[in-house]
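Annotators were shown the component list below and the corresponding predicted structure, then asked to write short factual statements about the assembly.
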Amino acid sequence: MTVVHQHQHGAPVAVTPGKATPTWRLLVTLAVAGGLSGWLVVTVYQITRPAVERYAAQRVAGAVREVLERPARWDTLYLVNGALVSKAPAGPNAQELPIAYVGYDATGKRIGAAVTAAEPGFQELLTLMIGFDPESGALLGFKVLDEKETPGLGDKIETDSSFRTQFADRLPPLTGVKGHPGGNRNEVQTITGATISSRAVIRIVNHAVAKWRPLLQAYHAGGAP
Amino acid sequence: MVPGAPPPATVIADMWRGIGRENPVLVQFLGMCPTMAVTNTLANGIAMGAATTFVLVGSGLFVSLFRKYIAHEVRITSYILIIATFVTLADMILAATFPAISKALGPFMPLIVANCLLLGRAEAFAAKVAVHRAVADGLGMGLGFTLSLSLLSALRETLGHGSLLGHPLFGPRFEPWVFMVMPPGGFFALGVALLALAWIVELRRRRVRAVA
Amino acid sequence: MSNLAWIFVSTLLVNNFTLVMFLGLCSFFGVTAKIETAWRLGLANTFVLLLTAIFAWLLNTFVLGAAPYLRIVAFIVVIASAVQFVEMAVRKYLPVLFRQLGIYLPLITTNCAILGLALFQTSRHYTLIEGLVFAIGAGLGLTLALSLMASIRERIEVADVPRIARRMGLVLVIASSLSMAFMGFAGMGSAP
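Structure shown to annotators:
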């Protein structure tokens, strides 16, 4: 409050617009401001980081559990130089590597793999997590992780369960059909009024399975359980 | 007195100004980007308002506290640095406490830095007055901003989703007016709100003239 | 290649920075009274966006990998410096343009489109080339939106509109119609 007091009594300010300030003072001001700012940011970062990381882990775990139909446990595989490895290499970019999750049931039997993929949807990038069995290539299901589709129309890919559930046990590459699909394992029914969003999902699923299936097969053939 | 300093006023007056006569959104049209982008649901609007208030108060406090030590030549850089620091803090705190809202706001949370309201208040007010006035002004401007965002987002969520804070209002037979939660709806809702406000002001002006 | 084309079409039309993403609204409402100034500011913005894309890529690749929490502070300081640099360069080599743009040049710093570009580029992990295409699309999209708005407002200037609509209200309703028109581009990049 002393600062306030002085000011109200008209104490002259240290720097007035007309007067040039020596360069060293400008540099000191900026250095002090930068230092203080950096210290504050790092302190709060360290306090909040555990909660943020816990949430991110929960989100991934929830999605993996859903698309792999409640596995007892799962392994995390990283894609490094065109091959899957079970340990992420050291380095700051490790978090950005493409990841596959391989789930097992209570008896240790492999259920399948979950991968994430993002491609253009109706308006923005559409991010899905896709579960499938690398051996047979059959789908287990998918979950929308991120979408900006039209509310009430395109977002039915997420909210309309009859669209979502029909992907289970289908065999990619899939094609979208209007009206009732004729029991063909390669066909899924698109949503009326959201054909482009439905086709985007189908396209992302097809590309993801085509890309990840050989990688996972190679990984499992290499002696991994 | 600092040259160009605002006239003396009580703390209450400093605070009230931002809520009413100098409301940042409805009167000054500052901070339009977040006003449009995140007001599709009430929760997002309130979160953005609260975060902006936090940054306004924090940066106002620091700018005023150090106003005698910040040289004129580097003042804008220093203010931006102070604002960016508080935005980073707000961003991290929100991500740790309300992750779902933090994800919904996305890049509009860090974009508070570029909200002209913050640099404007730092330069025009906080840098020239005592600490308690700067804080009162930040609080008032923040509350005014939050109020406008809440009104706008309540309108858009009610019409566009048929819900408020995620709770359905009208039952299953309600067909939501989806347009309101899409981008053009943002411009439209604020436009209609401003037209209505101007209409009320006009009516009152006419009544005053009729009495006189 | 198709990825680059999608980024360009998406930022220019489908997700137009101003009309759909709500970035850079200050200049969209403040500097669109005259078409001449509007497109000039749009091009100046495009130039700053290109510089920002390069700087953001450099920062992300070489500096911020170790300290992602300093991203906002680093970006805004770099943008402020880039704008200052552009201002000095324009003043020295293009004095006529400098006089025409006047105070709008320094205002680019608080244009959220610039910071928004850097943030989106980061969250989408764009490479340098993708970032540059993104910046050009965003800049031209901004220029397009500013010019469209300015040409409509120049006409309204001579029209007889109700007193209550003479300020921002009408401008916002026009922006809404423009934004609705741009919604029609949705789905363009997504055709199979």
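Statements collected:
1. Chain B has eight helices and two strands.
2. The mean pLDDT of chain B is 88.
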